[in-house]
Amino acid sequence: MAPINTSNSYAVVQKQYSDTSELPGAAYTTRRDPYPSRFSESPKKLWLERHEPVIKGRKLSGPLSAAQLEEFEEKGFLFLPNFIHGAALEELRQEICKLMSQEEYLTRDFSITEPQGNEMRSLFAVHFLSDTLKKLSEDPRLTGAVKQILGGETYIHQSRINYKPGFAGKGFNWHSDFETWHAEDGMPAMHAVSASVIMTDNHEFNGPLMLVPGSHKVFVPCVGETPENNFRHSLKRQEVGVPGEQALTRLIDKGGIESVTGEAGGLILFDCNVLHASNANMSPDPRSNVFFVYNRRDNACQHPFAAPGPRPDFLAHHSDKSWSP
Fold it and tell me: Looking at per-residue confidence, does 244 or 120 come out higher?
């Protein structure tokens, strides 16, 4: 993979906009923002350099080898097959079916249905809804790997179940999670990592996760100001916070696109800033995963950097608060 040239991009932007109040579309904050986004017009730079190191706990003991940490640092993600198997996997599958079949959840904000239809697409805050999933989020193999990557104590910023029914499950546009969490949740820096445990076999036809290797090394500002209560639309179909085609083309030319396929029970770890997407499920086979976002405690969210107000607690948890429906 060819290196991504990020030379002086941040300095140029900060010289151009010495205060965030001068940023086009920066109506919601007067703080100096190292990662400005949601512009009302196209910025002059396609991307800004990343300031935080990718691996912060390299010297800490944990389940990841030096080679695995190196792969994560270079690509921005890592797939670990057979993380869960046998009876433990079957127990998790049963728990997910139980949660996703709760009819009383369908009309609640923390339950997201397909853009066209009433089938549940995502269920949020699941480690608060299920003791089984809370136990999974605290698995030492998982938290140990997260600590090696982030280098400090963490809390769960977000958890959810994602489900794509056969033939009906829609795709999701290219995006960086950090861009959303920074703009709409107020996450200051790139000290977060996502863990996705795949509950069904992921193959090329049922809409597996696609990632752009190396794209986590830069931050791509997006055009389009954040509407009020944007989450009501973005969780079904993301249209704000989507990188431009020119930046995507350049980054894909350099890094390509990789889809993560594998048997149920595998674990995908990916950096908060890596660009990713998924296609619609074109097969009869459903696809589901359990998803936990770990944020470093000293990186707790503040006021959103580019939104009129914070998103609900079921989307952006606080380190010292529990949640209940």
Answer: 244
Output the CA–CA distances (angstroms, integers) from residue 288 to 3, 84, 88, 163, 193, in the order listed.
Answer: 34, 14, 16, 4, 19
Element (H, E) at 154: strand 154-164
Q: Can you tell me whether residue 140 is helix, strand or coil?
A: helix
Least Cα distance to 157 among 308, 300, 271 occurs for 300
Handedness of CA 118, 120, 124, 127 (dihedral sign): positive
- Alpha helices per DSSP H over 57-209: 66-75, 86-100, 126-129, 131-137, 140-150, 177-180
Average pLDDT for the chain: 89
The pLDDT tens digits of the residues spanning 119-166 come to 788 999 999 999 999 999 999 999 999 999 999 999 999 999 999 989
State pLDDT tens for residues 67-76: 999 999 999 9
**Domains of the chain with bracketed CATH:** 9-55+65-299 (2.60.120.620)
CA distance 23 to 13: 10
Inter-axis angle of helices 140-150 and 66-75, nearest 10: 60
* Cβ contact 132:91 at 8 Å: yes
| pLDDT at residue number 8 | 33
pTM for the whole structure: 0.89
Distance of alpha carbon 202 from alpha carbon 213, whole angstroms: 19
User: Contacts for 91-95 with beta carbons within 8 Å, 24 or more apart?
Assistant: 91/132, 92/132, 92/133, 92/136, 92/197, 92/199, 92/290, 93/199, 93/264, 95/130, 95/132, 95/133
pLDDT tens-digit readout, 70-109: 999 999 999 999 999 999 999 999 999 999 999 899 889 8
d(CA 325, CA 323): 7
Buried b (16+ CB within 10 A) or exposed e, 9-31: bbeebbeebeebeebebbebbee
